[in-house]
């Protein structure tokens, strides 16, 4: 009997040939029945999609139909997977359908649609173009081709814009490096928001700068402090005759003549260049991984110099210096943006501050 034949052996007797033909016909019939039942389940709606997939899978497993008919089965299963949102499975089935029958237009459409849903625009375009070669007047394929081209252009535009942002960030990081600046982890972002410096057309750095009054932990914020500006110029404007007095300064201690600026030396967490880029690309961090993930860190030690509860030495800022003069000090770690502390020689807090009895919270 044919059922007792060894695998791979050829039928010898007429009876064996008849048995094999009968088995093949039975499998072909089963495959066709499974296919038709799968089609019925699809028409019955989403609740029966899993049953449809099971029927198509059973039909495929019979391996009894011609390549073109097997291609239809894979294409049908791809169709159901598309409707279920199983795009990766749909793409695999559609690709298999195309391998079995290179003229299966529906398979090309479903492969293109699955690739489009997976944001695989290059593959989607290739499948769509191949389908249109088979059926140039296919309306669904033509509509999908328009969508693919539009999405691809959007992706290219977005990527180009993001790459511009990345290149700008790299230019900034290079400017920090050539100036010998040390950028550290942000400390006071709750006061400043996500502000970053920028290079103007002349290649000059313009920084957002925070002035903190440690006596009350209130603050002033300068949006653009040019690196070549003297501190005295900004302080003159901040404490000009027409400017408003500090609301909490009841003793009127904070006058132009009485104030002094300080920064805290050797305090902060140094960042390697990749982390600097992450800071500069705060809103485009996903692209950063793609653009710079293969770059090695620049070897800068980014362990904490002092613990947050410790205080480094307070260094007085000369008003006759430019911002860049101060930022280049080897003991100054910029906490994302420059931060300077304002105290008054006339304030009772001054002696406490100078004695080292106050530290950053």
Automatic annotation (TrEMBL):
<dbReference type="GO" id="GO:0005634">
    <property type="term" value="C:nucleus"/>
</dbReference>
<protein>
    <recommendedName>
        <fullName>Cns1/TTC4 wheel domain-containing protein</fullName>
    </recommendedName>
</protein>
<dbReference type="Pfam" id="PF18972">
    <property type="entry name" value="Wheel"/>
</dbReference>
<dbReference type="InterPro" id="IPR019734">
    <property type="entry name" value="TPR_rpt"/>
</dbReference>
<dbReference type="InterPro" id="IPR011990">
    <property type="entry name" value="TPR-like_helical_dom_sf"/>
</dbReference>
<feature type="domain" description="Cns1/TTC4 wheel">
    <location>
        <begin position="201"/>
        <end position="272"/>
    </location>
</feature>
<dbReference type="GO" id="GO:0051879">
    <property type="term" value="F:Hsp90 protein binding"/>
</dbReference>
<comment type="similarity">
    <text>Belongs to the TTC4 family.</text>
</comment>
<dbReference type="InterPro" id="IPR044059">
    <property type="entry name" value="Csn1/TTC4_wheel"/>
</dbReference>
<dbReference type="GO" id="GO:0030544">
    <property type="term" value="F:Hsp70 protein binding"/>
</dbReference>
<keyword id="KW-0802">TPR repeat</keyword>
<dbReference type="GO" id="GO:0005829">
    <property type="term" value="C:cytosol"/>
</dbReference>
<keyword id="KW-0677">Repeat</keyword>
<dbReference type="GO" id="GO:0006457">
    <property type="term" value="P:protein folding"/>
</dbReference>
């Amino acid at each position: 009997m044919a059922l007792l034949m060894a695998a791979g052996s050829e039928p010898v007797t007429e009876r064996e040939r008849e048995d094999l033909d009968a088995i093949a016909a039975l499998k072909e019939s089963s495959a066709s029945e499974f296919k038709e039942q799968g089609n019925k389940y699809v028409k019955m709606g989403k609740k029966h999609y899993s049953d449809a997939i099971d029927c198509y899978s059973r039909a495929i497993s019979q391996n009894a139909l011609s390549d073109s008919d097997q291609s239809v089965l894979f294409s049908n299963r791809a169709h159901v997977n598309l409707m279920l949102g199983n795009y990766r499975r749909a793409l695999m089935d559609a690709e298999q359908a195309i391998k079995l029958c290179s003229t299966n237009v529906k398979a090309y459409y479903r492969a293109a649609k699955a690739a489009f849903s997976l944001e695989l625009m290059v593959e989607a375009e290739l499948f769509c173009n191949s389908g249109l070669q088979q059926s140039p007047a296919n309306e669904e394929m033509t509509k999908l081709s328009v969508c693919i081209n539009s999405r691809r252009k959007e992706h290219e535009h977005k990527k180009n814009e993001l790459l511009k942002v990345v290149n700008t960030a790299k230019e900034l990081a290079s400017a920090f490096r050539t100036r010998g600046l040390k950028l550290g982890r942000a400390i006071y972002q709750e006061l400043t928001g996500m502000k970053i410096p920028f290079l103007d057309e002349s290649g000059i750095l313009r920084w957002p700068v925070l002035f903190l009054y440690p006596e009350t932990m209130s603050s002033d914020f300068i949006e653009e402090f040019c690196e070549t500006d003297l501190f005295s110029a900004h302080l003159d404007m901040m404490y000009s005759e027409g400017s408003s007095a500090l609301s909490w300064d009841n003793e009127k201690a904070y006058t132009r003549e009485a104030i002094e600026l300080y920064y805290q030396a050797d305090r902060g967490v140094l960042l390697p260049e990749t982390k600097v880029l992450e800071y500069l690309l705060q809103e485009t961090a996903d692209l950063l991984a793609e653009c710079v993930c293969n770059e090695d860190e620049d070897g800068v030690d980014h362990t904490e110099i002092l613990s947050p509860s410790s205080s480094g030495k307070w260094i007085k800022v000369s008003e006759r210096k430019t911002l860049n003069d101060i930022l280049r000090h080897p003991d100054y770690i910029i906490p994302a943006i420059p931060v300077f502390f304002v105290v008054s020689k006339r304030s009772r807090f001054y002696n406490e501050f100078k004695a080292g009895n106050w530290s950053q919270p």
